[in-house]
Amino acid sequence: MNFDYFVIPFLIGSLYFFIVIIWKFANIIRSLNTTDKKKLLKGLIGLPLIRSIIEIFSESLLHRKIFKVNIMMGLMHSSLAFGWFLLIAFGTIESKIHSGKPFNMPYDPIFLKYFTHNVNTIPYFGLFSFIMDFLLAVVLSGVLFAFIKRFRSMLFGMRRTTNLNFNDKFALYSLWAIFPLRYLAESFSSALYENGGFLTGTSGMIINNIFDIQTIQMLTNPIWWGYSIALCIFFIAIPYSRYMHIPAELLLIFFRQAGIDMKTKERGKRWLELYSCSRCGICIDNCQLSSSLKINNIQPAYFLTSERRKEENKDATLNCLLCGRCETYCPVGINVNNHRIVSRERYNKRIKNNYEYLENKGNSLEQYDVLYFAGCMTHLTPSIKKAMIKIFNHNKINYRFIDENGSICCGRPLKTNGLTESAKAIREKNTDLINSFNGKILVTSCPICYKEFSEEYRLNIPVLHHTQFIDNLIKNTTILKKGNDKYIYHDPCDLGRGSGVYEQPRNILNNIGQIIKIKNQKEKAFCCGGSLANHILTDNQKVELANQALSEYKKYSPDYLVTSCPLCKKSFSRLNSIETKDIAEIVAENIQN
Q1: N or C: where does the chain have the smaller number of CB atoms within 10 Å of the terminal CB?
Q2: The pLDDT value given to residue 408
């Protein structure tokens, strides 16, 4: 059996790491309800298992999503993660071939070059030495990239990097030390025993030319000790640092592929997502509060850290648009908005509202093809509801305007501001009202209402946003005048990123004129700044956010800026930069009689 006392730190660190991780994961799994536990068990076999393995390979090792953000950053992450994985894999194979046994000590693949003196005893030595040195060079390049990124982040497409806390720095510096120390340790062993490859063997020859044999022998063992200690420190630091994302992301992938819903208040699921945040900082640059307003301390990298450390961070919790742009770019796919909404309950849980005054009965005797719910914001932009009425009447649709005589809130603004009980109460009142009408479908002009009705309500009829409804009309009955006007379509946050409705509005505009493709569209679209989920920003700051989007749109010289959200229309229209219309208005103006 191969053994030297310097392997003890590695064994202590790795043992501690596995004990803590197993304990944390056991608590998370134990917190699941019975249904989710059954889903997880089923997810460990068959197709879900295959999908999990594929996602782990493509995202946790190769970092495919990060490559899409920036190639250099993708190379940095993949060379570290995938390179280290391959070092372990090929090192394990090499050690088993060397020993001729199916089982070895867990440290054998890590310290094999220390224990191997006679290379003639290793089958395929030349092949393995080349592979292992090549992989070590790959990982070292990743360490070099990571070091450069901390001081020259613009080379990696990032204006800002995350400000790390003490735990993160402690783990980071130990990680940076691991592979240079391995390189030095194997190079010194190569100087003694000529057991290195093209990289460590060459370094070993250089060392032989610099030091005498006694000095090399004196330094070799301490360097291996340093390598083992660096591994120990890193393993112990993982559960308390950003690097907890390495094991946590694996479990998160299995949860998702098993069909477990992560948008929840359940403690175990929330903690798994909190652990899975790597604080990579990609969210910082892609947050408009950072890029436009230079507010750089409220992004998910900081907010989720505060949540994990159980620190009060009211500003990071409340000062957010909930536009979801950070979620689009997050390589792990964390449901950040869900965490913010849950956290906001802490600040508003004492506020209670009563909605007994609301009407909760409709006319169930008459049947309607469409129940139309304009929503609060649509009532503040009456041209939209007038356009919808024209569309209904032109197509001879038997509809009922539910909130014609008074705006009824859908409850989502209450929910996004942490007033979940009040939101629940108003949902119950609205559900009774809508279900009491004898309608076939519910159509709304507000993306906020659409998202709330679709996700939170239990209605007995389908829910459509008016873009979906109009798109169906065009496919079946309505004929529109085709013109030469050029349109830019602005994707509202709750309709696009929030609900995945991208193609229907574009289909509509393509039937009327020409739609211009722009850089930041669909899931990458800017927020208009008019979000009802943020009561911290000043009006001037919200105008600045709108101007950020408009400054891009103006480059394309459109005839009209078109959106499908009353809030977006109000935010853009008041700046008089580009003539802005709701898509319902464009359709109403171009109906062919």
Answers
A1: C
A2: 79
- On the question of a common fold for 367-471 and 478-589, the answer reads yes
What distance in Å separates the CA atoms of residue 236 and residue 241, rounded to the nearest whole number?
10
* pLDDT tens digit sequence for 97-140: 888 888 889 999 999 999 988 877 778 889 999 999 999 999 99
* Cβ atoms of residues 335 and 269 within 8 Å: no
Alpha helices in 277-358 (DSSP H): 282-285, 288-291, 300-308, 314-318, 325-329, 336-348
Q: Give me the mean pLDDT over the 460-473 stretch.
A: 96
CA contacts within 13 A on the Cβ side of 422: 19
- CA neighbor of 73 nearest in space, from 176, 167, 142, 175: 142
Separation in Å, CA 449 to CA 370, 446, 459, 539: 16, 5, 13, 23
Residue extents of the structural domains in the chain: 69-242, 261-348, 367-471, 478-589
92 vs 108: CA distance, rounded Å? 8
pLDDT at site 365:
62
Are the C-beta atoms of 189 and 196 separated by less than 8 Å?
yes
Sheet holding 367-373, edge to edge: 399-401, 367-373, 438-444, 463-465
User: 10 Å Cβ neighbour count for 314?
Assistant: 13
CB 292: neighbour CB atoms within 10 A?
Answer: 19
Q: Which fold has domain 478-589?
A: Rossmann fold (3.40.50)
Q: Would you state the pLDDT for residue 229?
A: 98
Task: Give the per-residue pLDDT at 346.
Answer: 86
pLDDT at 358 (0 to 100): 53
Q: Is pLDDT at 354 greater than 80 in this prediction?
A: no
- Please write the tens of the pLDDT for every residue from 18-53: 999 999 999 999 999 999 999 999 999 999 999 999
C-beta atoms surrounding 517 within 10 Å: 10
Predicted local confidence at residue 360, as pLDDT: 55
Q: What is the DSSP letter of 591?
A: B
Which tokens sit at 98? 């060397």
Nearest to 397 by CA among 440, 448, 446, 453: 440
d(C-alpha 432, C-alpha 459), whole Å: 9
- pTM given for the model: 0.91
Residue among 455, 39, 426 nearest 256 (CA): 39
Q: What is the pLDDT of residues 567-587, one digit of tens each?
A: 999 999 999 889 999 999 999
Which residue bears the tokens 């689009």? 328
Helix (H) or strand (E) holding 444: strand 438-444
pLDDT > 70 in the chain, percent: 97
The rounded distance, in Å, linking the Cα atoms of 508 and 482 is 11
Indicate the residue type of 78. Answer: S
Give the number of residues written for the chain: 593
3-class SS of residue 370: strand
Contact 573, 372 (CB under 8 A): no
SS3 for 278?
coil
- The SS3 call for residue 39 is helix
φ/ψ of residue 204, rounded to 5:
-60, -40
- For the domain made up of 367-471, the CATH class stated in words is alpha beta
